[in-house]
Each structure stands twice: as structure tokens, then as C-alpha cells.
Amino acid sequence: MYHRLRGRTGTWTPWSGLAGYGGAATFTGTALAITGRPDGTAHVAAIGAA
User: How many other β-carbons are positioned within 10 Å of the β-carbon of residue 3?
Assistant: First the structure.
């Protein structure tokens, strides 16, 4: 799963892998939901691949 971040100036970062669980380089999963919060943070909920 990959993500980008949008800065305050409106510029975007390059695509990068979402950090994995337990030291894995990237996260893999079968379902993903992301929500933006009013304070500018984001929350990710996912079902990971075993």
C-alpha cells in the first residue's frame, strides 16, 4: 500500500510505501480505509496480509 502527503503549500510528496508491521519494509493487505482528521492528521485502518 502506498501513500502521498500534501504539504501546507499544496505540494505533494512522491509516492512511498506505507510502513509495515513488525519491521516489514512495506505494508500489504486486503482492505484499506483512510480518513482525514480536522487537525490535518490521517488515520489508516487495514486488514493486513498474513
Answer: 15
**Separation between Cα atoms, residue 14 and residue 3, nearest integer Å:** 8
50: pLDDT strictly greater than 60: no
pLDDT tens digits, one per residue of 1-26:
788 888 889 899 999 888 887 888 88
Q: How many angstroms separate the CA atoms of 3 and 8, rounded?
A: 17
* Three-state secondary structure of 4-47: CCECCCCCECCCEECCCHHHCCCCCEEEEEEEECCCCCEEEEEE
* pTM score, whole prediction: 0.52
Structure-block grid coordinates of residue 14: 512522491
> For the chain, what's the residue count?
50
